[in-house]
Batch of 4 targets.
Target 1
Amino acid sequence: MVKKALFDAEADAWESLYRDSSEARWGVFQSYARKRTRARMELCLSLLPPLAHKEVIELGCGPGYYGMRIIAGGARWTGLDISEGMLTVCQKTTRSGRLVRSNVLHLPFRPRCCDILLCIGVVSYLRENEIASLFSEASGILRTGGIFLTQTVRFDPLTWIRCRLPRSIPRPVRIPGPFYPRNPNTITQLLEDSGLSPRRIVPYCKFLIYPAGTVYLAEKK
């Protein structure tokens, strides 16, 4: 899979967007990318309920910085990713928790096994029918009253172009695009169709005012 191979190759670059470092692949653009990535993480984590003693699963766990924070909050965390490279970095980041290599469209979890499910930076790679399938599976593994947190991107011509640049052109990370921007009304309807009731819908920006995406917090009915 092209996307998996690129995520494997870019695992260290993605990890660098979360940690404090003076290293930069592309100067000031790396700094901007790091600030945006970490701001999005802080927004997502701020929407979660108390984590102590909760069973938390993260789909598309990447380099593991959400997992590190969730474990520090007292939760039992499981991270899933399709990329071996990402999971290797994640293991070093989290140092605990359970790691699973699998596709988000085929979740290897038993029904009603978790209290909180995160899916950040994943949905925008999926077509609408794949999103519906993912949300249905997510609903199935959540306990009644459990929380599902996900995120989508808005249409961004700069990102659209960046996904299509030749791989030889340097940038903070190479994104295995293209992204599929989604209307919040579409995502809200897909959540509701899967038995997930939206509770918070929070837009976020980059470059202060430029719309970048939306975070959705939903509850299992």
Target 2
Amino acid sequence: MEADKLRNLTDAELLHQQRELNDQLFRLKFQLKMGQTESLNKIRGLRKDVARIHTVMREKQLGLVRPIAPRAESAAETATPAAAPDKKAKPRSAAGTKTKTKAKAKTKTKARKK
């Protein structure tokens, strides 16, 4: 669920949505423990949705409601090169990648020994 849609809901609707998501999350966790399902992506998505609802509720509580701009204007602003500063990619050092691969190789051999 998108945060823009959540910001348009009332407080009561947000609480209802939060309860619904928490119920779904409980059922999925219970099924996971019982071995009936392995839908970790669904659980992660529900947890993120609950966190979004908490964030929107806190924004409303603090009065930090952001004005929602129309999609057409925001797309036009990002298309102009003057609005977006140039970000250069940081070059990776060859030594940094070698140490990561060595560490991965060590963990694989440790796992095989067990």
Target 3
Amino acid sequence: MEKIFTALSFLLLLPVLAISQTDLPNMDFENWYENHYSIIYPGNFYWEPNSDGNWNTWETGNSASEIPNVFPTERTEDAVNGSYAVRMETKSIFGQPAAGNIFTGHFIANMFNSQALFGVPFTGTPDAFRGYYKYTPGDISGSPDTCAIYAILSKWNGTQRVEIAKAELYQHQTVAEYTYFDLEFEYFSSDIPDSISIVLTSSKLGDQFIGGIGSTLYADNLSLFYDFSPVDNNNLEPEIKIYYNNSILRVQKNTPDMAIINLYDITGKKVFSTKLSDYFSEINLPSLHSGIYICSLRENNHNTITKKILIR
């Protein structure tokens, strides 16, 4: 059982592990080892994802459940391909729901006061987070449980850890067969990250000891996708990047040319419009209803650039 600290407190370890990388090992969950933790009962063990070098890229909360000898996360042969995948199940331990989980970072076991320190060194800027999953939700007071699968890119700015991009999936319905997911990273900043946190759990609120007993999440063949599609230099458009976070729309372009930016709601109604005339602009958007919006930017005679943004 574990208490998940949502703050990326793993940042304290980053100076020691400052290894630039743009990919992660064991994302197909093929490598595991048996952790035999008891001298008195040498046959007792739980599965842990295999170590790479002197650090575990992947961790689980299993070490917090050694006393009851009940482990929510395990290796499974029910895989998309290859030999193994990861299986996470929300179990009852001392009467409390303990969610199965696997994540990048480090875990400090201390029963109900355990800590998950999310994040490992990472400097890539992937376009998408992909993989396969299936899920059976348990019941929480008459409602289905929800699993969580997400990846966060972040950077320590000297005073706090700031999110740069996020890709996320939350599912409360039964997904009986392995299903492919392709989650586009939503970037909030053009900064280069120094850490990536990937988290998968059978109960989204497991950090609060809330979950449906029996909720079961399988995952396999995770990957980070980088779009290296070739560009025709004869038709090269100016690079324009659009980011949205906390009611602020940020636009970065490589010319100071005048541009017009329009924002449309899901019905196609224009809800905002303004002009830009600089390399970098920060726009405070008016109060808008939660939902998906289309941001459209046109610079002089160049083609229109569009981006989908989510306003919560």
Target 4
Amino acid sequence: MLTGTKAQIAVTRGRPRTHRQHERTVEAASGYELLDWMPDGVVVVDADGSITYANRRAEKITGYSCGELQGHPIELLVPHRFRAIHKVHRRDYSARPAARSMGSVAHDFNVRRKDGSEFSADIALGPLKGDGPPGVVAIIRDVTERREFEALLEQQALHDPLTGLANRTLFMDRLKQAIQSARREGRRFALVMLDLDNFKHFNDAFGHAVGDVALKKFAAKLPSGLRSTDTAARLGGDEFAWILPGVSDRAAADRMVHKLLVGLKVQISSAGQTVPVRVSAGMALYPEDGTDVDRLMRRADRSLYSAKREGGGFGTC
């Protein structure tokens, strides 16, 4: 509902003005002038849902002047896809008005600007108080920059800074979710551990800067061919992993992993040399190889190092 706050604004309309009523009208005008200096947008809506006032901040964040907003339904500021449901919520709120503070709703609202673009907003609501007709006051706070900053922090906390892939923290959370989902639905999934062969020697020979280039090139190819439900992660160093849910059996998982590995061929050129970057992989299957995080990780690691001992390639339990 695009309407609210605890602000008390006295409005008098349609009656002969006594001295006290005139004072209230002056108080209302003064109140509106003060609202013009608020850092958040303020919109006043009457009982029919029509806008009667918008402060300067509301004009700035919506692109509409107060004159362009006045007399129009509040749904003018609601994206088209939400207008029908907004009307329902607005009527429900009008029937049972109550103060609602900023941050009291778990989700943001989308506010539509004059040019058709949208921004994320937190909205406080409150019934319009005073001797005038009933209405609602909405305080509209543009939280776009805050949400972008929060998303950046989340990205940094849950993703590897070098490659942009999921990091160990996010990977472990996804692995726990995969176990819970597979247990609930009675399905299998594959856990694949990967690392680059002889990467330490590669770093020693070409330097860490070239090693980082190799890791980034490899990581860029790692999600290739994955489905939206799959997870690719860098766990640290040259250690990577996949979570591949919904595999039917071990043979199907083997075929899927072999197919994915074909696309992981990377070559690095440095100092006139072109060197292929080879990868080894090991797989564990839920629930046959384990039903908890630790056992699945150990089995996948064991099959990875078994493959490396045999000269690289792909190993299974």
